[in-house]
Design brief:
Layout lengths: L8 E8 L2 E8 L4 E5 L10 H7 L4 E5 L20 H14 L5 E6 L1 H12 L4 E7 L4 H7 L9 H6 L5 H8 L1 H12 L8 H12 L2 H10 L3 H11 L8 E5 L2 H5 L3 H6 L5 E5 L6 H4 L1 H13 L1
Parallel strand pairs: 3-4, 3-5, 5-6, 6-7, 7-8
Antiparallel strand pairs: 1-2, 2-4
Length: about 290
């Protein structure tokens, strides 16, 4: 059995035709759902989730295609569209008895959370996004040699076949590269947790690639349609990011403010894996968000 968060109960919940998510659940009180990023599982929230569970109901799923959740074969662009994955999350919360909930996501999970908040505004009460830009804006800010930092986005955007074969040839080297490079302090991801992340990713290469491929296609189409329709995030929004704006030459807060009128935006000094590197700060921002 893959590791889970201490004190949390692992459940398997059907959320769509032929798709079941694995989720760790604990606590009581108002619900909050925490969505993990790449190349991780729900275990990335272990420090934050145990703190929040003192007075909240905390739900930490593995996303469709990741960890112990089902990994449907890519059957067209919608299989791993963020809209589809967002619907999974709403169905999960509803199956657990929650028609309305707060939602926080990191990295890939933040893109799912963003789409969930646009598509289900009456369901998502508060939104937190950690270290991403919305998909449409992400592609717009990547230019020239500076875009080399995001090489994996371009690799996994390719048609089915080549990226899966390349990554499957050396999965630990590929996924481990990001765990090592993106961590401000690698010691915050202990060896046993790192090994669990690599095990989970090694078993999910096709679905992880499909998730990223969707973000070079159908997810862009959905974001563009939302922008053209003037859709905005109606709920209080908190965004925590590394200072990518300074590194790549754009105003990150302005990008987010175009989507989120009620925005708290902050930059952090830790690495990408902030829920593991600076969990107390993440908890503080989440609790401040929930108080808005």
């Amino acid at each position: 059995m893959a590791p889970t968060i201490p004190g949390f109960e692992r459940q398997r919940v059907p959320v769509a035709d032929g798709v079941t998510l694995s989720a760790a659940v604990a606590g009581s009180g108002s619900p909050i759902v925490l969505l993990h990023g790449f190349p991780q599982t729900h275990v990335m929230w272990r420090h934050v989730a145990t703190d929040l569970a003192a007075d909240l109901t905390v739900i930490c799923p593995d996303l469709r295609g990741y960890g112990a959740s089902d990994k449907p074969v890519e059957n067209g662009p919608d299989t791993y569209a963020k809209r589809t994955m967002a619907a999974d999350v709403v169905a999960l919360a509803r199956a657990l008895g929650h028609e309305r909930f707060a939602l926080a996501g990191h990295d890939r999970g933040a893109l799912v959370a963003f789409r969930a908040a646009l598509d289900h505004p009456a369901t998502i009460s508060h939104l937190a996004c950690l270290d991403v830009l919305p998909t449409l804006d992400m592609w717009d800010v990547l230019h020239g040699a500076d875009a080399a930092v995001a090489f994996h986005l371009y690799l996994m955007a390719q048609p089915p076949g080549l990226p899966e074969r390349m990554i499957a040839a050396a999965p630990d080297a590929f996924f481990g590269h990001f765990l090592d490079l993106w961590a401000g302090d690698p010691r915050t991801i202990p060896a046993e947790i790192r090994a669990a992340y690599l095990d989970a990713c090694r078993d999910a290469v096709p679905s992880i690639v499909a998730d990223y491929r969707a973000s070079a296609g159908v997810d862009v189409e959905h974001d563009r349609a939302s922008r053209q329709a003037g859709e905005r995030l109606r709920m209080p929004v908190t965004v925590l990011q590394q200072d990518w704006g300074a590194a790549l030459g754009y105003d990150a807060a302005a990008v987010w403010r175009a989507w989120a009128p009620d925005l708290t935006h902050a930059t952090v000094t830790c690495g990408h894996f902030m829920a593991e590197e600076a969990p107390a700060d993440v908890v503080r921002f989440l609790r401040d968000l929930l108080a808005r």
